[in-house]
Specification:
The chain has 216 residues and is α/β, with parallel strands linked by helices. The protein folds into two domains: 4-85, Methionine synthase domain (Methyltransferase, Methionine Synthase (B12-binding Domains), Chain A, domain 1); 91-210, Rossmann fold. The protein has helices at 4-12, 16-28, 33-55, 61-82, 105-116, 130-140, 154-167, 185-191, 200-210; strands at residues 91-97, 119-123, 144-148, 175-179, 195-197. It has a five-stranded parallel sheet with strand order 2-1-3-4-5, with helices on both faces. The longest helix has 23 residues, at 33-55. The mean pLDDT is 89. It comes from Blautia celeris.
Length: 216
């Protein structure tokens, strides 16, 4: 089993060589899917440390960009292991970072994990308007809508999107989850979503439960 604490520290310190070495050795040992999910959570915690260091002025914008690239690289190493349990498509998710927000790291982590779990994910990207979400929902008729955001103002965009889905008469046919740093129980209540989480692995399990599946 990989040392999760050390992995978190390595990501937080932006030690690419150590992170990749640890993950490659981990994957070579043919870990269980749940262990791989724990490794991703450890990487997420490392990203939280990066964010904290950015806020205190220890890290700069360039460091945030590098951290995002490092996390994407880490996900590519882990993705085959996470996907080992996915045998068939289990459902469809429309996903995006809501209007007014340009953050995509957490969204991309969730997308990779959801696809590995068997979902077809339609990622609309960042700064997505409520109308764009609705158009895609009408087009692909997904089981789940995933709204991501980091900024506090993103909650209002989430609410506008959920309200538009209601107005279109489609709310009863779709489950909605919110994620990102702005996500909380209160944000879920305000937006009208069904679930919330700041943990990608946890959100994937909630989605699997909604479509009658379970994480092996």
């Amino acid at each position: 089993m990989i040392d999760l604490t050390s992995l978190t520290s390595a990501v937080g310190e932006l030690d690419e060589k150590k992170v990749m070495s640890m993950l490659q050795e981990f994957v070579a040992g043919a870990p269980e899917t749940e262990e791989a999910a724990q490794a991703i959570t450890a990487c997420q915690k490392g990203m939280e440390k990066v964010g904290q260091r950015f806020e205190t002025g220890e890290y700069f914008v360039g460091d945030l960009i590098f951290a995002g690239e490092l996390l994407t690289e880490a996900m590519e190493v882990l993705k085959p292991i996470i996907g080992s349990a996915a045998r068939q498509k289990v459902g469809k998710i429309v996903l995006g970072t809501v209007q007014g927000d340009l953050h995509n790291i957490g969204k991309n982590i969730f997308k990779s994990m959801a696809e590995a779990a068997g979902f077809t994910v339609y990622d609309l990207g960042i700064n997505v308007s409520p109308e764009a979400f609705l158009d895609k929902i009408k087009e692909v008729q997904p089981d789940i809508l995933g709204l991501s955001g980091v900024l506090t103002m993103a909650v209002e965009s989430m609410k506008k999107t959920v309200d538009l889905v209601k107005e279109a008469g489609l709310r009863e046919h779709i489950k909605i989850t919110i994620g990102g740093a702005c996500a909380s129980y209160e944000a879920m209540q305000v937006s009208g979503a069904d679930a919330w989480s700041t943990n990608a692995a946890e959100t994937v399990n909630v989605c699997l439960g909604w479509v009658g599946q379970h994480q092996e």
